[in-house]
Amino acid sequence: MKTDNLNEKIILIQELVNSGINVTPSIMDFLQNLEDPLKKIKFIIKNISFLPDFNSHLTLDVLQKITDEELQNELQKVFLKKIDSKILQDKEESVESAKLTDSPKVINPAKSKPKIITNSTDITQLENQLENQEDSLILKKSQMKTPLFPIKTNSKVRTFEGSKSTLKFKPIAKEYDSNFKILKDPTGKLYTNGDYEDFYNLTLDKFKRLRNLMRKKPEVLSANNINNILRLTNKVEVSVIGLVNEIRETKNQNCFLTIEDLTGSVNVIVRKDSENQENIQLTNKIINDQMVYIEGTYNPSERGRSGIIYCNYISKIDIPKNYEPNKALDPLSIVLISDTHIGSKEFEEKLWNRFINFLNGKIGNQHQRERAGRIKYIVINGDLVDGIGVYPTQKSDLIISDIYDQFKEAAKIISGIPDHIKIFYSSGNHEPVRNAIPRPSVPKKYSIDLLNQEVICVGNPSMIQTHNVNTLVFHGDSMLDLNMLIPGLENNKPVETMKELLVCRHLAPIYGKKTQIAPLDRDWLVIDKIPDVFHTGHIHINGMGSYSNILLANSGCFQSQTDFMNSLGIKPTPGILSIIDLDTLKGTQLDLKSNI
Fold it and tell me: Which range, of 266-270, 364-368, 433-437, 553-557, averages the lowest pLDDT?
């Protein structure tokens, strides 16, 4: 290629990529051969912005929709040229074949006459034939250092238009290599004797980690140790950081707290009056073992009584309001699922098969197939199998009662996921690991068939980075405790519970309820690193939202209601996919139950 032509091509490519448009080499060659190609490309860029179904990939079908006579005439020439070339090739092959077999074949000129393209159906049919001969080259943002045009999505649940599709499926995710890191995984690092020292070390580590997070807030820099405050003999304004040791309502309906640090404990009164409503609202959501920051007036002790801080300001650690999440450079997506419960009689096999067909581009409308083509990763957040002996009446709910057979079946159904999609599997409370959190990954003796399919098995909680986006994966065991203890939180509103976990910066803020927490030297449940995506499961109810620019998703389930779930008042929402675009951090919920 001459230097002038090369420079011209670079300029044309840069113009397209700066507008967020991807092209294949064949489309690029076509555009470059147009008269005044730069002017024509600018015209195309302007016009495709009005096409509602344009998704950043410039194809022959997209060009055909642009109402420009010159452009359409050039497209006709390209199609006719390719047809003539194809016919000539077929003719040469026929002649060569005749020579080899000594059986000459007569080419009928009438049958070789090219078909004139007169409508969009002809163009689409021919395009599908020609696409088989094209190399799919996507101009990556990481190569061109320019932004890609994002697909706009929202978190509303969308029905799945699932009629069987005969369109050609070319997933863009297949063109990208996997790019991931496991940033946090407790597997192989969980050691405990279960004695008093282990419990003490866990509480001590929790306090230090949460205090360090709290001290990142500018207003807490003046906080003093509790022991120093208790030595005061006059009324004075003070501030303190501590864990809540007790919380109750007084006879006057004020809120009474006891908080403690490494030096001692002090009592706090939060008055319920008209000037203190914001503090009262926050204390309504406080539970034991949470880290809080208190400002107020300290009244020293009298006649042997303990001193009291009369609170005028209270806060939790929370997420900075100006947090800017990481985003991917490439137009890829991740699917978040959990609670498939393979082995259960209530496993939704039809919905799962529909999921597999969706990933393989066999069902769905054009937009849904494009979304499927962007999927590069799947996270299975616990309870892949139903397990055995998890609850008293479980045996009657099982169709596969052997744990090894459950995992073999799991490997079988997962094998339908396309090879270009990387799968991560984190353990839940139904897996054959300890019930106390944090949990290690499922042992190799159970997961060997999954490992042979290159599934990445991790513990729970874990932090997984995919194309620069950090996803905090937590099965969600503690969510039921919070929903029972904090007014306004409900099982059917998982996003609100997830927000409270982020505010506390801890995945199981209260100790000693139904959630079993293992006594370790390190508290793995502290949210030290702020995630870009927070993924939970466990309660079998799908939900999606955001908090301080963090995308939140509870991934529902693939299991219909069991008697045990009914006894807990849980009405599951199976078969709703949570799909996250890594380049925009926009979430979409896709309901697979439509048109089954």
Answer: 364-368
Nearest to 350 by CA among 558, 143, 57, 84: 558
**Integer Cα distance of 278 and 252 in angstroms:** 18
**Same domain, residue pair 385 and 266:** no
Beta-sheet pairing, 157-159 with 255-261: unpaired
Residue with tokens 């290629």: 1
Question: CA of 238: how far to CAs of 207, 212, 232, 299, in Å?
Answer: 20, 19, 10, 10
DSSP string spanning 557-594?
BSB---HHHHHTT----BTEEEEEETTTTEEEEEETTT
Q: What are phi and psi of 469, to 5 degrees?
A: -100, 130
Q: What is the pLDDT of residue 49?
A: 60
Residues 299 and 364 in one domain: no
Give domain status of residue 13, yes or no: yes
Q: How far apart are the first and last CA of the chain?
A: 53
Average pLDDT over residues 290-304: 88
Looking at the structure, do residues 238 and 144 belong to the same domain, yes or no?
no
**H helix intervals, 472-546:** 479-485, 494-504
- Whole-prediction pTM: 0.74
Neighbours of 301 (CB within 10 A): 12
Taking the C-alpha atoms of residue 492 and residue 483, their distance in angstroms, rounded to an integer, is: 10
Please count the structural domains in the chain: 3
pLDDT (tens digit, 9 = 90+) per residue, 96-115? Answer: 444 444 433 333 333 333 34
Residues 59, 143, single domain; the answer is yes
Predicted confidence at residue 31, as pLDDT, reads: 82
Domain-terminating residue out of 293, 315, 337: 315
- Helices H / strands E in the chain, number of each: 18, 18
Among 19-33, 141-155, 403-417, 454-468, the range scoring the smallest mean pLDDT is 141-155
Give the gyration radius of the chain's Cα atoms. 31
Looking at the structure, do residues 381 and 431 belong to the same domain, yes or no? Answer: yes
Q: What is the mean pLDDT of the chain?
A: 84
Task: Return the amino acid letter for 203.
Answer: T
| Residue 208 within any structural domain of the chain | no
Which has the higher per-residue pLDDT, 303 or 15? Answer: 15
Characterize 451-480 residue by residue with b for buried, 16 or more Cβ atoms within 10 angstroms of its Cβ, and e for exposed.
eeeebbbbbbbbbbbbbbbbbbbbbbbbbb
Residues 371 and 510 in one domain: yes
Eight-class DSSP state of 151: P
- Cis? peptide before 509, omega within 30° of 0: no
> Which tokens in the block code for residue 301?
């002790």
Domain that holds residue 140: 3-149
Co-location of 8 and 137 in the same domain: yes
Longest dimension (CA), the chain: 120
What order of strands is seen across the sheet that includes strand 333-337? 157-159, 586-591, 576-581, 333-337, 375-381, 422-426, 456-458
Contact 295, 550 (CB under 8 A): no
Question: In sequence order, what are the residues at sequence separation of 6 or more whose Cβ sits closer than 8 angstroms to the Cβ of residue 360?
Answer: 169, 372, 416, 418
Domain with 238 in it: what CATH number?
2.40.50.140
Residue 23 lies in a domain: yes
Residue 518 CA to residue 206 CA, distance in Å, equals 13
**Is 155 inside a domain boundary?**
no
